[in-house]
Amino acid sequence: MAAEIERLGGLPLKQLKAAWAAEFRRDPPKGLWPELLLRTLSWRIQEKVFGGHDKAALRLLQAYGQKKPGDARCQRLKAGTVLVREFGGTRHTVTIAPDGFVWQEKTWSSLTAIARVITGSNWNGPRFFGLREGGGGKGGNPRQERAA
To answer: What is the pTM of this model?
Structure first.
């Protein structure tokens, strides 16, 4: 197992993608960087040797994937909170609503979708709006304001 993972780690991108396609019987998703390709293939190898997640972990992951804005994941984001982010010389404000996130008078299901439209590239929405470490980037310092 360790030797196979090490071998994969030394492959050029084209061969790494071919290994992915052979393992998963489809091409890797576009934009998946080499390190993530390798990590996913490594997980798959380990999963075959040791087994995958136990039932409790699978239930937890399934439940986490079903959550919507306003639930436990977004508990600290109360309805009425306004997120402010300056990007590309434009100030963007997003208001947290009970059923999503309001930006430019439209309700969105996720901050990531809004960040993608603003930047034109894939961003983690909470990170883009400064809700996670590593946010900010070149567009300025994000900040939160509480609605009155």
So the answer is: 0.44
